[in-house]
Design a protein that fits this description.
The structure is a single chain. The protein is an all-alpha fold. The protein has 2 domains: about 100 residues, Orthogonal Bundle (Fumarate Reductase Iron-sulfur Protein, Chain B, domain 2); about 90 residues, no CATH class. It is about 55% helix and about 0% strand. The chain is globular. The N and C termini lie far apart (about 45 Å).
Length: about 210
């Protein structure tokens, strides 16, 4: 396949944004392929991890943002650990996911993964720590997968593995500020004013 690469593509603002987030440049990758060889979910991807980095080097970020790969990535860091250049591939995938959502360039494929990603990040931003019960509740309501994992979920709840209320976490405001500084989350998603003075554990919410 042949395609023309314009200078504007190589100097894309989106690629610069990725570099700012991970504090590295994709240009350091010399395509040894160790990331793709060691990836445990490689077989589910439409573009191998090393090819994702190559496309970024060539300014083809739109193809990357529209790919299935960035959503299938499990962020296990196997690729980052194996990389001889110590390129933060897993962090790069995280940055690409956020850019895909922010720019609306993501495709309808893997919609459940995208939904879970949003629910997880909003949960972390709101409580400062993952609260499994509210994540499961919101995800099931929005995905309509009401009866998926009911048996295993019930067993975990009865054994105390899933807590009904969030744990108390210090510095929730600081954690929210970190999310906002990174460009994630909107202020209108914050709890109502009357709830802000209370700790999340006192006002359990599903979002």
């Amino acid at each position: 396949m042949r395609f023309v690469i314009e200078n504007e593509q190589l100097e894309s603002d989106l690629i610069k944004r990725v570099e700012e987030i991970i504090q590295q440049s994709p240009s350091i990758c010399y395509q040894c392929g160790k990331c793709s060889a060691g990836c445990p979910v490689h077989y589910l991807m439409d573009i191998p991890p090393n090819v994702v980095i190559r496309l970024l080097q060539l300014g083809q970020i739109d193809r990357v943002l529209e790919s299935r790969t960035i959503w299938v990535c499990a962020s296990c860091n196997t690729c980052s650990t194996r990389c001889p250049k110590e390129f933060k591939i897993a962090e790069c995938m995280d940055a690409l996911r956020e850019l895909a959502l922010a720019t609306g360039k993501d495709t309808p494929s893997e919609k459940d993964i995208k939904l879970f990603h949003k629910v997880f990040m909003n949960n972390m931003r709101r409580f400062g720590k993952v609260h499994e019960a509210s994540i499961a509740g919101v995800y099931k309501l929005k995905s309509r997968h009401f009866f998926a994992d009911v048996v295993s979920g019930t067993k975990m709840f009865l054994k105390g593995k899933i807590k009904p209320f969030p744990h108390k976490v210090k510095g929730v405001k600081e954690i929210r500020a970190m999310f906002e500084a990174a460009g994630y989350g909107q202020k209108e998603e914050e709890p109502p004013a009357e709830q802000k003075e209370k700790h999340p554990s006192e006002t359990p919410s599903l979002e």
